[in-house]
Amino acid sequence: xxxxxxxxxxxxxxxxxxxxxxxxxxxxxxxxxxxxxxxxxxxxxxxxxxxxxxxxxxxxxxxxxxxxxxxxxxxxxxxxxxxxxxxxxxxxxxxxxxxxxxxxxxxxxxxxxxxxxxxxxxxxxxxxxxxxxxxxxxxxxxxxxxxxxxxxxxxxxxxxxxxxxxxxxxxxxxxxxxxxxxxxxxxxxxxxxxxxxxxxxxxxxxxxxxxxxxxxxxxxxxxxxxxxxxxxxxxxxxxxxxxxxxxxxxxxxxxxxxxxxxxxxxxxxxxxxxxxxxxxxxxxxxxxxxxxxxxxxxxxxxxxxxxxxxxxxxxxxxxxxxxxxxxxxxxxxxxxxxxxxxxxxxxxxxxxxxxxxxxxxxxxxxxxxxx
Amino acid sequence: xxxxxxxxxxxxxxxxxxxxxxxxxxxxxxxxxxxxxxxxxxxxxxxxxxxxxxxxxxxxxxxxxxxxxxxxxxxxxxxxxxxxxxxxxxxxxxxxxxxxxxxxxxxxxxxxxxxxxxxxxxxxxxxxxxxxxxxxxxxxxxxxxxxxxxxxxxxxxxxxxxxxxxxxxxxxxxxxxxxxxxxxxxxxxxxxxxxxxxxxxxxxxxxxxxxxxxxxxxxxxxxxxxxxxxxxxxxxxxxxxxxxxxxxxxxxxxxxxxxxxxxxxxxxxxxxxxxxxxxxxxxxxxxxxxxxxxxxxxxxxxxxxxxxxxxxxxxxxxxxxxxxxxxxxxxxxxxxxxxxxxxxxxxxxxxxxxxxxxxxxxxx
Lengths: 371, 364
Known about the structure:
The complex is a heterodimer. Chain A is α/β, with parallel strands linked by helices. Chain A is 40% helix and 19% strand. A 6-stranded mixed β-sheet of chain A has the order 4-3-5-6-11-10, with helices on both faces. A 5-stranded parallel β-sheet of chain A has the order 2-1-7-8-9. Chain A starts with 9 loop residues before the first helix and ends with a helix. Chain B is an alpha+beta fold. In chain B, α3 (97-110) runs parallel beside α4 (131-148) and α6 runs antiparallel to α9 (310-318).
């Protein structure tokens, strides 16, 4: 398939791996920012192709994982109400709140629906004027334009029974927070390809300069990730710390201005609580005042819900690249996708869930011999 | 058909076909939808059976309309299987719930190495189901049964209140005969055995998903639903010593292969690049964020065969209309018993494990 098969080519992959081997002279810790990249790395066994000197740690870029427990509880409180149709992206449905998840509410008769686009919710709202249709607007800058568009259209078309529960998060503040931590081990980043498709990569330049860290905006296919790794290693070995673009077929320095304008019209930057990490200043989007009529948090009076994260798992450390999933004693035993204890096990893109799905908890019996 | 009023012959297929026309003189045409009385055991029940069901399934074993069908099976061991069908939507590109209900049970029997012979059918109808839709489903079942060479010899119909079912649920059970000398079961997978898939994967699941989610792709993806007993005959003819057959339905290729590895306590190593998948399905999976290895198939089988026979089996399968794209996708190995590993397209290695629940589309 065009634009896919070329990026999954074994010979090409081997060539890049050889080049990385030739270049690398000492150990380096790289972080891939996006959950999609983590998923790809584990799915294709990319980390196992790399020389031992290179350690990939997995970043905070899984939007489902970092959505705070408090926000999930708010979603559940809203979805429980009898006159509500609660719409969400598919992988939010199994994310556990304090007492249950959206799939369980669905089985109890609540109207919970999976949508592929928030715009679909407007159709549902028009078809069900007696119901309140709520969309769970989560994600990084990537999903913000679609969510902003849904709110914008609802506002323009006076669809009064549509609202959004906003839990948007932003990548640059999270990267800065990782780099400021005294525990930080990350020396280079594979930057977030899809986030930068929308936002461009200008805003990463000050981060690279300030923290002396190379950031290579990277795609999601195996060849993208290998090439991103090669470019980062090349910079590290040469003592450089710049922003480079591995993903120019999609990403430009300025990004998608139309999308950015739309996002800025609907949202403003505010503080946001991250699951497993805590509150990070100016790390999320909130609806602007003009759109408060579509703000589910206000409409349903759930602002008071304030859930504490259980202090039992190390997902906060995993999200910041300090620990790996199998450093956790609960990984694959007490904690698994059926009964996740924390952020990184809840979505397929979370580092712990990806490790689990691709058998990393079985590492000893299964893969040690096979590879 | 439990009502014991003999009605065979009263309704010829030609008369039944006219049900679809507005000028139909038959009383049942007064009911455009299924009503509770169609399951009451009274006159309306009999009309439904006589006019809609029996004309399609006429055969000597069904004809007496006794409480059950009576027959002998001759030589060989008997395979017996059942499955229930609750697919939504009930009509989808490439088939409907009726075709699926026949193919599914026929295939389960075929995977035992049996020649499927007789099926039972149980309908659970939701009040309000359009009569025309039921009629189409019954016709599809007949066509599927004819094609697979099986007879529907006994059945039952119930109607439940609106909201208590999703239009129509169908259960079928089937009986087949396993020829002497055939011994197919998951525990027979042995080190060195080759794993063959009969064609491109993940078609059915994506066909259903595209209708369910209202997604439109440039080319319509039609379900691969098909009766596989003909293909199994072909395989058994060239290799009576087939060790395992599985049809990778729910849970996809991953679940079937993992179950084989676990039952036989052997390892399985797959080659991602060898697994056939169509461009359309691959594209749809990419868009939907799904892994095709976990997506359902309804007209594909996995054969585990001794290495010396693999090429013959492959050649024979490729000569059959349902096996044109057959391919060897892996082998049974000594390492990691109970687990399936896969060499990925880029040369990495990973474990392939069953999912905990339904595969949910990813956000990005």
